[in-house]
Amino acid sequence: MRKIGKQEIEDIAVGAALLGTGGGGDPYIGKLMALQAIEEYGEITLLNVDEVPDDALIVPSAMMGAPTVLLEKVPSGEEMFSAFQNLESYLGKKIYATMPIEAGGLNSMIPLALAAKLGLPVVDVDGMGRAFPELQMVTFYLDGISATPMVLADEKGNNSVLSTINNLWTERIARAATIEMGGSVMTAIYPMTGKNLKDSGIRNILQLEEELGKAIRLAKEINADPVKEALKCAKGFELFRGKVTDINRKTESGFAKGIATFEGINEYKGETLEVRFQNEHLLAQTNQRLLCVTPDLIAVLDAETGLPITTEGIRYGARCVVVGIPCHPKWRTEKGIETVGPKYFGYDVDYIPVEELVKKGVTL
Amino acid sequence: MRKIGKQEIEDIAVGAALLGTGGGGDPYIGKLMALQAIEEYGEITLLNVDEVPDDALIVPSAMMGAPTVLLEKVPSGEEMFSAFQNLESYLGKKIYATMPIEAGGLNSMIPLALAAKLGLPVVDVDGMGRAFPELQMVTFYLDGISATPMVLADEKGNNSVLSTINNLWTERIARAATIEMGGSVMTAIYPMTGKNLKDSGIRNILQLEEELGKAIRLAKEINADPVKEALKCAKGFELFRGKVTDINRKTESGFAKGIATFEGINEYKGETLEVRFQNEHLLAQTNQRLLCVTPDLIAVLDAETGLPITTEGIRYGARCVVVGIPCHPKWRTEKGIETVGPKYFGYDVDYIPVEELVKKGVTL
């Protein structure tokens, strides 16, 4: 158990945006929400997974929908509060702690802000070790834990308690409701026990986020390249350096979908990189080479500052480093690949771990 | 208080389909569900509105969605049961009785079938005095009663408890969820008190349905025209007699929408009638005359048997009588017309009561 204050929030926000691989929400809004909550209610208690009793009720809190929409439809803060109250009353049990469902600029921060407000601890764990666009894309799904009862709540005051026969139906019905509720909503989802968490969660994610943010922040002081410092910390690989020459982005079926194109600089001169995304970056390839593919992480960093850039933050002309990071081993199982691999998203390539792609330089 | 047995079900099914003005679900499936429930659980208790205590919790039960879909996606019966259980546990109060939300082949029967199964009484009242396609289109909405908390449940086992800031949001979010859940679902909606019911409900609707069904059934025995007998009972008007020459029907945004075209016979020879519908018949006009428009009731009856035909039952070549019936006075108020008048459905005509249209023969 330890306390999370303002400096930790700053670092976590950066690291979470990096592991958010372009999605998971805007880090600036997320950070402001968490800082404001600490200002108002004091520091947040962070628990290690092993500190949670086996029978405790743990409920992740998250934004669902297109992050592009959320930029213009800022949460009121009240919707998450009412979602938790609703779920407690539906389940007839007190919630012991909250946690992030994924890494991401916003979705790592919402549980922290909510925890401060409710006086609950946050558990240092998530269900992805990165961000993914659909709500069955969590290790809890791989381990047969139900996403429901889940609560969806919008900033107007509408809310819905959903119970479904499986998590694919949760995704379908919740997505339709989210779109109708304006494109982004707050959710309380995957209510589970401490035991579930110990079996199925990805541990110490907030700690990794904080270390990543710290590495990038402190690089300047030691005259180091912030990108290299981040890669050291995340055990990742530089895939490409380039300038954004095109960004094609649309909000479709409740997702921010598109392609970002980069023209190579330095040793990558002459090559063109395409990064495809659906809320998150999912596939990076040049005309010759496949560089990295989901479920491995693809992050776009500012070449100068090392700061991660979300899909909605990619701007024409920006100089970026595209990096690849191996995903959690749970995603590399058969069911993992089936759930979040390239074929699921409609990309006709096989999954090959990023460390092999980097070694072999696999050609297309 | 009285008991409803099999003969009453047969008659109510016919009268309800007539007042259902083409919508409200298939009368055959509805009747089977109710007869089966009586077979299994015994006769149903029907209460007069005045017999309900002011503070009792009354919950209407209904199908929501496109009736065309329901024909191929028959309810399991369990979904309504689980919807009621869910709502009781959400509200923390026992449900005293159920009731129909609207008249219609299916939606008049569902509360009867459910009541038999749950051992609850049914109240002889509804919120429309006819059928309408959207869920805010009830007298309860005119009187400011909330549609939520409402439960949606599908035959697969998915369900959702929805709470919204107003009934237009209920319609939007529930409709989106309904479409995603397969196009038709069972709902427990507009939970209200006995007092609400006394102030706002349309009374003795099941009694009227039964009388209508009985009038049509007994016409043969007295060698009378069943259509004329029905019109006498419903205080309605014959508008047109014709043969179906075209039926244009599609399922769009969760509704069965379309136009049925009739070529006049007998004294209507030479005229062509178009009936426009969105689940229910909403507008009847020839090239020369406006015959009847929502919220007044437009029913299509078989010229021979007098039996009502639903929009999905209209067949090429069928000889029909199209009849008009004045709606309940609550629909003729300013808010009533705004909620269910022709303009709401996108028809550029003013509402004129059917009895005036019949007298004047208003030309277009």
Automatic annotation (TrEMBL), chains A, B:
Superkingdom of the source species: Bacteria
Organism: Gottfriedia luciferensis
Signal sequence residues: none
Start and end residues of each S-Me-THD-like C-terminal domain: 166-354
InterPro entries assigned: S-Me-THD-like_C, S-Me-THD_C_sf, S-Me-THD_N, S-Me-THD_N_sf
Protein name according to UniProt: DUF917 domain-containing protein
Pfam families per record: S-Me-THD_C, S-Me-THD_N
Domain S-Me-THD N-terminal: 7-163
